[in-house]
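Protein data sheet
==================
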Amino acid sequence: MRKIIVGVFLFAVIAIIVLDTCTFVSKPYQKVLINRFGKIITHPTRICYNWYLCWPTDKLIRLDMRMHLYQSNNREVTTSDGEPITIRTYALWKIIDPRLYYEKLPGGTPEVQNYLDQKIEGTVLTVMGQYPLGAMFNVERQKLRMHQAERSIRNEVNVKLKPLGISVKALGFSRMTFPPTVAMAVYHHMSAEREKIAHKYLSQGASQATSIVAAGRAKATEILSEAEKAATELRGNADAQAYKIIGDAQTTSQARRFYRFYKSMELFKRSMGESTYWILSPNNPVVAPLFQQLQVIEKHTATHAGSAH
């Protein structure tokens, strides 16, 4: 019984060693090649355990088939009209032929980065030299040729990279600016143009403001003139009505009696001094109008009081 247990244990250990040394697992994003005595085997592999001959017969080569990002350093290029600009380029590349990729670039990703530096940056210098500065920097969208330049660079780079088993799927400029020596001059020029446009609009605005103010003042003068005319007419009508009322009042008997009363009061006021005393009867012709008027007022007051009760 003990021998059976030992035998089973030894069998399990040997099986584990064989599985560990003679099998491999391929991840979904990987392509696994086998280098067997210098011969590359590219037969399909499953995303599970695969058999192969272990060292020193076979060597596993794992290739990442996902997208890889390349980014360049800032590079100064010259446009067709002699203007320098600084460009930083990015690219997304992918392995399209695993066997060819391994044979041409056995160093892997670091070697690819160095090769892309040479091919992409050289192509950028060549292609960008065919475009003027206005095709890269312009406020009018229809004059820009940046996307066209990016496509041209990507197509030329893919022609150079195809023999290496890789392909650039996307390429563009992650940064594009002027060198410090040129940037200030360009910014001053742009600022001067904007100030010129601003002065133009300010001048137009001042002219329109002057026209609006003049029109407002003319309208105000017209309104004031019409208002004064209307006020004069109203005053004239009011004065005419007032004179008519006064004239009508002066022709009545009540007005004549009041006039006689008023004149009597003025007579007394002028003829009497501070130390003068008059004793007059109601029948005296001088003061008769005064007493008669007082009697009329008393009767009028009594009549109104009686009607109120």
